[in-house]
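Input/output pair, single chain:
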Amino acid sequence: MKKLITFAANGFGTGLSPFASGTTGTLPGILIAYALASLWWPWQIGICLVMALLAVPICDAAEKIYGKKDDGRVVADEYLTFPICLIGIPWTAPGNLWMLAVAFVVCRILDIWKPFPARQMQNIKGGLGILADDFVSTTYALGVNHLLIYLI
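Output:
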């Protein structure tokens, strides 16, 4: 069971990258976002909320296995929240792939920066603390991405 938990927590191996594990660990989120892209946006919201809730016990169990708070190898919080920043954005339409690239960069910048109250949420213990900062940062990214697409 430990191997299955760590495999999911590590983003199927992407979180084991020696360089920018959070960024490489976000990559499986692109596949999830693609699977959600054709759904009506309220369904996207619901599924994203379920995935975020699913990330909490995965991250919590992995934290206990590794014995370290928010271990860099744990990226389930990144890839399971990344699709949030693409809710309602028509990035899969022909000629719109640039929107995915913009959304990815904005999401990663905000996850690294952790605007208020994301940084403070890291103080929450366990899987909820691991997830909460990413959830807030990615929600900010959703707003920024919609604004950028509107302006562009």
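The mean pLDDT is 96. Residues 45 and 87 are 7 Å apart (CA to CA).
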